[in-house]
Design goal:
82% helix, mainly alpha
């Protein structure tokens, strides 16, 4: 078993690129979700303490993360 540093470096670079891409897509998706929901979702969660809005936002983030991970993995 030999250590191929060039391949290792390429894999680390690709993993970093895909991670950043996933975070950007998740952020854009959350902002789009916030735009179509009534009111400011972040204000409802953090300022007003609306638990239902937090659960809805959390479920959305989990769902979008699964879709992004599946699309990057394939």
């Amino acid at each position: 078993m030999s250590l191929n540093l060039e391949q290792l470096g390429l894999n680390i670079l690709l993993a970093t690129i895909f991670s950043v891409l996933g975070f950007v897509l998740l952020f854009v998706g959350y902002r789009m979700f916030d735009a179509v929901t009534p009111g400011n979702l972040s204000r409802r969660i953090f300022d007003e303490g609306n638990v239902a809005a937090a659960i809805m936002a959390g479920a959305f983030v989990i769902a979008v993360s699964i879709v992004i991970a599946a699309s990057i993995h394939s």
